[in-house]
Amino acid sequence: MNAHQSIERYNVGERATHAVAALTYVYLLITGLAFWTPALFWLSTLAGGGYLARLGHPWVGLVFALALARMHTAWRHDMHTTYEDRAWRRAIGAYARNDDAAVPPVGRFNYGQKMLYWLMAGGGVLLLLSGLVMWNVASIPTDWHALRAGATLVHSIAALATIGGFIVHIYMGVAVVPGGLHAIIHGRVSEEWARQHHALWLARLRTPRS
Amino acid sequence: MSLELRRVSASSAPATAVRLLPIVSKLVDTSTCIGCKACEVACQEWNDLPPEPTTQNGTYQTLGGLTANFWNLIRFNEHDEKGALHWLMRKDQCMHCADPGCLAACPAPGAIVQYVNGIVDFQQDQCIGCGYCITGCPFDVPKFNRETNRVHKCTLCVDRVSVGLQPACVKACPTGCLQFGTKDHMLEVAEQRVAQLKANGFPEAAVYDPPGVGGTGVVTVLAFGDRPELYGLPRDPEIPLMVRLWKGPLKVLGNLAMVGGIVAAAAHFVRFGRKHEGDHEPRGPHDREPSGTRTER
Asked: Does B258 contact chain A (CB < 8 Å)?
């Protein structure tokens, strides 16, 4: 362990859950995009062909939903919008321009991360419910035509919303924020990193619990 | 199969048909159906479909509905009109829509095709078993086989038609209720029959060839043509609006949004790049380490 990285940001359970969610999401993204448009049907080859992709998508979706549920139990207390988040939100332009000196300090997660979290949580619920309908479409009574078609539409819209969040999330974590990817994989960050990105969280860690 | 393809599911390329053939059609004159079920037997026999256990629902109808192994069901409906009981029989099967909702919804390239003569056919070897066709069909025809995880329906005996034979059900029909030919010819015969019915006490007789799906390859003569619901037929079938939204504008907007998101991320990286690492000198009031103990919890 790098002595320099003295602070545990994500414990092993959080990292494992995130890894399961990440891997299953990528599988769902690849197979889902294959079903979404003919131009991307070739993606199903990566999942063993269209038949296997169709077979695996709902089961892997259930695993993703379980990972989301576990994330929710672990992180929901950290995901409420706080007073400091409102200040951060007003400075979001400066944050996007990498003018971090003008960005107010935040706690364990910044407002953007929290929005991504709630987008994935809400999208996940919609995807699960609509996906269950689509999975069992042959068992849905004839008279409930609207439910069949509605579930398909909801599934697409919810998936697109999460894809938007996913693009931003991957871009931020991998390309923009140094150490972000390292932190979610290895779990530890330096004090310097914590002060730069999550100063209020660091302060709380340093404050004895009252 | 020598027939060319007019439409192919989930294909980004245009269909290939250049040698145009007449659209074929099956005529179902419900007013001359006697409910003998010869067509059901002929369908099972010709297509070598495994026997489907029948159910007793208190009617003469063979099954409650179509199944993956039963593609042609005569539905028996009783209708009381001005004190007279009418026994309405209707042939439930794939309607072979000119604008098929199943094909529009299908995500698997080539799993649903429309031959140049208008027959809509499932290619089970290309089918991935997603069931989108079930959602897209306004007639609730495609049926899922839980053993093969594929979807099945009437082929309009494309194997017979493509070599100049009529469908097995038509061959077996003893009353002339079922006829087969070009769509133009079948519509002519249907209109003649409608005129006869109108002259014989059925003023509402009509041809059922719903325009919402571009017309159907199964043309039905209904004595009570103003009320297709009596026969279990939808009044104005069309591809479900939500399916059209999903496969139309939403797909275009969604693809643009996904590409736009990736382009925006790339543009941001070129313009602003990576956040600075470890050169975080205090430069403003926000940068002092906070002294308060306000937490998020």
From this structure: yes
pLDDT digits (tens, 9 = 90+) for B124-156: 999 999 999 999 999 999 999 999 999 999 999
The alpha-carbon gap from A19 to the nearest alpha carbon of chain B, in Å, equals 23
B positions 184-203 inside 8 Å of A (CB) = none
Other beta carbons within 10 angstroms of residue A147's beta carbon come to: 15
Could you say which of B126, B149, B269 has the minimum Cβ distance to residue A175? B269
Question: Considering the domain boundaries, does residue B286 fall inside one?
Answer: no
> CA–CA separation, B71 vs A174, rounded Å?
54
Q: What is the CATH number of domain A7-205?
A: 1.20.950.20
pTM: 0.90
Cβ A149–B243 below 8 Å, yes or no?
yes
Pick from A5, A30, A36, A52 the residue to mutate for testing the B interface (most B CBs within 10 Å).
A36
Residues B162 and B256 in one domain: no
Residues B169, B174, B176, B179: what is their CA dihedral angle, to the nearest 10 degrees?
20
The per-residue pLDDT for range B252-279, each reduced to its tens digit, is: 999 999 999 999 999 999 999 998 876 5
Residue A205 CA: distances (Å) to CA of A6, A180, A186: 12, 19, 19
Q: Which residue bears the tokens 């309607």?
A: B95
Does one domain contain both B217 and B250? no
pLDDT digits (tens, 9 = 90+) for B64-91: 999 999 999 999 999 998 899 999 999 9
ipTM over 0.85: yes
* Residue reference for tokens 């159907």: B216
Mean pLDDT over residues A110-137, rounded? 96
Under an 8 A CB cutoff, do A138 and B131 touch?
Answer: yes
